[in-house]
Amino acid sequence: DIQMTQSPSTLSASVGDRVTITCRASQSISSWLAWYQQKPGKAPKLLIYDASSLGGGVPSRFSGSGSGTEFTLTISSLQPDDFATYYCQQYNSYSRTFGQGTKVEIK
Amino acid sequence: QVQLQESGPGLVKPSETLSLTCTVSGGSISSYYWSCIRQPPGKGLEWIGYIYYSGSTNYNPSLKSRVTMSVDTSKNQFSLKLSSVTAADTAVYYCAAAARSLAPLEYWGQGTLVTVSS
After folding, report:
1. Does the distance separating the beta carbons of A32 and B108 come in below 8 Å?
2. What is the pLDDT of residues B49-97, one digit of tens each?
3. Do B45 and A101 touch (CB under 8 A)?
4. Is there a cis peptide before residue A8, judged by omega within 30 degrees of 0?
5. A95: nearest CA in chain B?
6. Distance CA A62, CA B21 (A)
7. How far apart are CA B106 and CA A46, in angstroms?
């Protein structure tokens, strides 16, 4: 089973900051990785797919990179609407796995 | 735009079977891979399994012995059954759709809370 490890678990940042979240896979998943944003009481929303492709309607301040086992999600300039929890998810194998999540808090 | 709506019992007794139905609108059930995901209160997301309209399934190995998913193409619905539930199965249960087997979860339902308690 492929394990996904995100870091950090919590991140405190200010509006305008550049923010980076890392996701590591326990084995190579090529580029079969997605990033989701979840706000309290809401379903997750797809931000990035295939490691670096922007989801529909997602602002360009969000970007993803990486392949193999190391991936990053970057928010170039944090906006008030971006305070949320972010999850990575692999879809390389028949079994899907999420990372444990990274909560982005207001500093 | 595909829309999903979960319907479930709200409350299930320990040792019983949890049943969840997901109704699909705005798209054909034969066009996507349909997943169930859960999220215990205050915790992260856990993928439960997926089903294709043909009936082909894949389940999370940690839940495989207790999970059954099925699809009803005539009603544009798919279903989850989770047997022998305990308090650890208390969670918000989501339905979601992926366009292919190697694709992210593009569409999500709003989720429904299922509590396991006597």
Report:
1. no
2. 999 999 999 999 999 999 999 999 999 999 999 999 999 999 999 999 9
3. yes
4. yes
5. B60
6. 34
7. 6
